[in-house]
Amino acid sequence: MNRPRPSAFTLLEVLVALAIFALAAVVLGSAYVNVLNGYQIARRAAGGQPDVQFARAQLLAQPDVELARQGGEFDSADGRRVRWTAVIEPTDLPDLFAVTFECEIAAADAAAKEQKFREVFRVLRPTWSVQTERAKLHAAVRDRITKIQEVVNK
After folding, report:
1. Is 5 exposed, middle or buried (0-12, 13-18, 19+ CB in 10 A)?
2. Contact partners, residue 129, CB within 8 Å, separation at least 6
3. CA 11 to mean position of chain CA atoms
4. Which of 16, 24, 84, 89 fits a 20 to 30 Å CA distance from 74?
5. Poorest-confidence range of 9-13, 41-45, 77-81, 143-147?
6. pLDDT score at 45
7. DSSP code of residue 119
C-alpha cells in the first residue's frame, strides 16, 4: 500500500532549520557587537577631544588637497593652541586616499603636557584627485574587472 505522504516538514528538518537560524543569529550578533566596539575604540582614540574632532572636520572639509596637506592651526575654546597636519597619499583606487592625520594640542599651562593624536584612515575625496591620474586608475580598475570576468566566465 502506497499511502501519500502528508506535505509537512519532519521534526529533523525543523531542528536543522532552527540550528542554522541560531548559528546565523550568533554570527550576526557578534558582527554587530564588533561594529559597536569599533565605534567605541574610535571615540576613545580621540580621547573624546572636541578639538581633535574639529581639526579632523577642518581636514575633511578642505576641497584642495594641497591646502589639506599644509594643515592648519586654531585656538581652542580653553585657550590652547591646536595644530594639525596630514600626509595624504593616493591609493590604487580612484578618488580614495590614505590619510595620516596628526594633531598637537599645546599645554594650557606649565604643569600640563602637550597632547598628540595620530590617526590613519582612508577617505573618498574626488576633489583631491588629479584628473589624469584618475583616468589612469579608472582604466586600471576596468582592466582588473575585465580580467576577473574573463576568469569567471571560463
Report:
1. exposed
2. 90, 94, 95
3. 45
4. 89
5. 41-45
6. 63
7. E
Beta bridge partners of 120: 100
- Cell 574587472 appears where? 145
Q: Please count the other Cβ atoms lying within 10 Å of the Cβ belonging to residue 99.
A: 20
pLDDT tier, 12 (very low <50, low <70, confident <90, very high otherwise):
very high
- Cα distance between residue 88 and residue 69, in whole Å: 6
How many angstroms separate the CA atoms of 55 and 61, rounded? 10
Q: What is the pLDDT of residues 16-65, one digit of tens each?
A: 999 999 999 998 888 888 888 887 877 666 555 888 889 999 999 999 99
Whether the model clears a pTM of 0.70, i.e. scores above it, the answer is no
Of 65, 36, 56, the closest CA to residue 119 belongs to 56
Length of the chain measured in residues: 154
Strand order in the sheet with 72-75: 72-75, 81-90, 96-105, 115-124
Q: Indicate the helix (H) or strand (E) that contains 115.
A: strand 115-124
Residue entry with cell 583616468: 135
Q: Please tell me what DSSP assigns to residue 6.
A: P
Reading the block at residue 146, the C-alpha cell is 575585465
* 93 has pLDDT over 60: yes
